[in-house]
Amino acid sequence: MKKTIFILGCLCISFASFGHTPMEIPQLEEGLNVVGVYPVVATTDNGYLENYSIGARVTATEVGTGYWSVSKVVVEGRSVSYRPIYGSDNGYSFSHGSQTYYFYM
Question: 9 in a domain, yes or no?
């Protein structure tokens, strides 16, 4: 019983310490229906060489009933150009520094 209470107490403390901070919804062009802003981890695909990862914020907008599209990708506070991955329904890529990063929604 004491062990269960201790575990529950640790979980409550960890949730309070690492709580979710809502992301600010960016201002986009009028008429766009923002579905949400999502944190993603994008990674490189350098084969057997060293791979890297980076955090990004992806803004999705509604493009039809039940359909959405990526409308903005922000990395380290800057908007970056992105493109869909050919042959993938939900994969995207962007360049940052000297690397190309990939993420999936």
Answer: no
Residues (pLDDT < 50) of the chain are: 1-26
32-58 pLDDT, tens digit per residue, is: 688 889 999 999 998 888 999 999 999
6 occurs within a structural domain: no
Copy the structure tokens of residue 98. Answer: 């000297």
Q: Strands across the sheet with 33-43, in order?
A: 78-80, 67-75, 53-64, 33-43, 99-104, 91-96, 82-84
How many domains does the chain fold into? Answer: 1
Domain ranges, residue 49:
29-104
